């Protein structure tokens, strides 16, 4: 997937003017947040589970090497293989080699954002292997030569008319706007793909060190067919997905479903533990797990380690006012929303991803709904600091911050300046209490009015409060 993060402002501007996209995003605002709230209200212990999930993830990250080695040992014991990929390029080469070992011509794929991250589809196609997405949303996007804009609802930026048009064009069947008809059409087309595939590639929501198992959760069942019908099953996932035990896994599953879709549990929760054994009626002959690093190990022990707690539920983007206004494609790469604003700069560099940590109102909603309590606003501030230190911000922003810092360090100048600025803005606002145009603030007033300051300055109010406190 091409990296377009430096063009966030232009893409966001275009998204706000896209009526079709705005209609689709309206469905997001009315769906996932409300369902999550209802599911959480039905579980009095949800907050306790969040604390447990946070603490367990912290424990795992402190002993990540131990659990990854235990997981590998168990996979080998079960008859499978684990492959370590430091970079996206390493992962792609490993997967292609595994496909060539069984002379694969087609592979079915299901539920793996990591394969989007490493650009697997394009790599396989360039080397003579045809990937077929089997998740309905991903399949629609593949037909349209499009990319996901959301983690759990990849085609949320599309409307029914878009899907109908894509199916009519590629399936050569009568056009329909009935979701049930379109769903059945997809089933019929994909059924042959499932049967013909030489290799099945899935992601993994979690990897269990205790048993060497991987688990994938879906609501469509495509993951089951992808990993049981082909001769070879390849799991492509990232190193932070490991959990110690099956019991630990169930804790995260309870948090994941409620945070993601508002369900008590997802429909299909499928564990894979090695290749087919004697007496098994189905399953792959070969089982491989490709563990992708791609910058994650550098986050361990850093100020961004908390981001590795993420269980990819999408609650942060479902509740984000910025994502809700401009959609996922505006972020310009695989991971959108608040979690992408932290993760993307780590993977592609702050030089390319610097716009994303700045695309936040810092309202804190993302942190308040995160099932493992990742302090996303704090992490975005770290990236802003890094961007500032590397002189990557626009000159206007740097000069503005430098000017403010100069004044703030000198109370003799700062106090009269803020009083004068407050008086000026109140005069400019007049009786309406808002300002339509303000010098040096066009980035704000071009799109919305600036509210006039209320009351006195903070320092004056603080001094008055201290004085009243001493008198009482």
Summarize the structure.
By secondary structure, the chain is an alpha/beta fold. Helices cover 52% and strands 11% of the residues.
What does this structure look like?
There is one protein chain. With 472 residues, the protein is α/β, with parallel strands linked by helices. It has 3 domains: 1-62 and 318-393, no CATH class; 64-292, NagB/RpiA/CoA transferase-like (Rossmann fold, 3-Layer(aba) Sandwich); 404-471, no CATH class. 52% of the residues lie in helices and 11% in strands. The protein contains 23 helices and 12 strands. Strands 1-10-7-4-2-3 form a 6-stranded parallel sheet, sandwiched between helices. A 4-stranded mixed sheet has the order 8-5-6-9. Strand 5 and strand 6 (213-218) form a beta hairpin. Helix 4 packs across helix 13, helix 10 (160-171) packs across helix 11 (179-196) and helix 16 packs parallel to helix 19. The termini are far apart. The relative contact order is 0.12.
């Amino acid at each position: 997937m091409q990296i377009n993060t430096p063009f966030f402002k232009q893409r966001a501007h275009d998204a706000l003017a896209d009526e079709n996209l705005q209609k689709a995003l309206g469905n997001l605002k009315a769906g996932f947040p409300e369902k999550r709230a209802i599911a959480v209200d039905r579980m009095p212990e949800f907050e306790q589970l969040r604390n447990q999930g946070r603490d367990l993830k912290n424990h795992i990250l402190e002993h990540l090497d131990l659990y990854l080695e235990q997981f590998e040992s168990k996979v080998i014991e079960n008859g499978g293989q684990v492959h370590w990929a430091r970079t996206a390029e390493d992962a792609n080469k490993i997967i292609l080699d595994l496909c060539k070992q069984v002379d694969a011509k087609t592979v079915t794929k299901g539920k793996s954002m990591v394969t989007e991250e490493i650009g697997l589809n394009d790599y396989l196609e360039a080397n003579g292997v045809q990937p077929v997405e089997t998740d309905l949303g991903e399949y629609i996007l593949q037909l349209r030569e499009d990319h996901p804009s959301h983690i759990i609802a990849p085609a949320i930026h599309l409307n029914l008319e878009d899907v109908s048009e894509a199916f009519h064009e590629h399936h050569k069947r009568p056009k329909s706007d009935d979701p049930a008809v379109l769903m059945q059409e997809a089933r019929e087309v994909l059924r042959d793909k499932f049967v013909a595939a030489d290799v099945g590639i899935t992601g993994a929501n979690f990897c269990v060190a205790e048993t060497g198992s991987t688990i994938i959760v879906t609501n469509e069942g495509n993951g089951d067919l992808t990993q049981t019908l082909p001769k070879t099953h390849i799991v492509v996932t990232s190193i932070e997905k490991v959990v110690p035990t099956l019991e630990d896994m169930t804790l995260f599953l309870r948090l994941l479903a409620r945070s993601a879709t508002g369900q008590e549990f997802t429909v299909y929760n499928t564990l894979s533990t090695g290749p087919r054994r004697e007496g098994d009626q189905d399953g792959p002959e070969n089982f491989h797990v490709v563990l992708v690093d791609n910058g994650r190990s550098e986050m361990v022990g850093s100020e961004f380690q908390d981001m590795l707690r993420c269980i990819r539920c999408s609650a942060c983007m479902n509740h984000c006012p910025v994502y809700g206004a401009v959609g996922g494609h505006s972020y310009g790469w695989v991971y959108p929303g608040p979690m992408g604003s932290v993760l993307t700069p780590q993977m592609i560099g702050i030089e390319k991803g610097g716009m994303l940590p700045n695309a936040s109102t810092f309202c804190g909603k993302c942190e308040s709904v995160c099932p493992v309590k990742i302090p996303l606003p704090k992490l975005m501030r770290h990236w802003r600091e890094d961007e500032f230190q590397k002189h990557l911000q626009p000159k206007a922003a740097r000069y503005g911050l430098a000017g403010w810092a100069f004044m703030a360090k000198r109370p003799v100048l700062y106090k009269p300046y803020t009083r004068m600025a407050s008086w000026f803005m109140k005069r400019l606002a007049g009786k309406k209490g808002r300002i339509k145009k303000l010098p040096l603030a066009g980035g704000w007033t071009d799109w919305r009015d600036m509210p006039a300051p209320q009351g006195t300055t903070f320092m004056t109010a603080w001094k008055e409060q201290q004085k009243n406190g001493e008198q009482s």
